[in-house]
Amino acid sequence: MINDLWMKDRVSSKEQLRMKIEEPREAIIRKSVDVVDEHIKKYLQLSSLFFLGTANAKTQMDVSPRGGKPGFVKVLDQKHIAFPDRSGNKRADSLLNIIENPQVGMVFIIPGLNEVLRINGKAIITQNEDFIQSQEWDGTTTGLAVVVEVEECFIHCPKAFIQGEVWSSESWAKKDELPNTTDMYKAHLLLNGITL
Length: 196
Description:
By secondary structure, the chain is α+β, with helices and mostly antiparallel strands. It is 26% helix and 27% strand.
């Protein structure tokens, strides 16, 4: 059956993978830095959205969006950045994961720009009121902030955003074609035996 074809010819080794995707050029490997320089600082000052990747102790993954006014992610020094925790659905998936496993990955976006900034590092959660107040974040926080010790930063090529036509409104679905997220939410609750 067509649905079983993905199980055949599985790629399960680095050698098999590299037969399809050649080794990157040295400039691609060495574009990664472990400090927040002026270029990265400027990018963060203009970024209003990033996606935070975390994993728990069992390596179960989660990715969630974080947004704010441009520059809401603060550069503390060359090795540390910080962002506020905001009120949400109270699941706190990312924060619970950070407690179990501090490794995080972040993909930052500037609206209209196809290149994204990737930052990987180790995170801690702080509830220090003086620190949180000193950052002068707009709006309220949960009384928590996340500080990330930067281990790796690099600009990611624009191909995904170009291929996905992310910033081209002509390619967007019409409003009446979009998924009804309220219906989706209710249907998923129903699958779990909960009726609203």
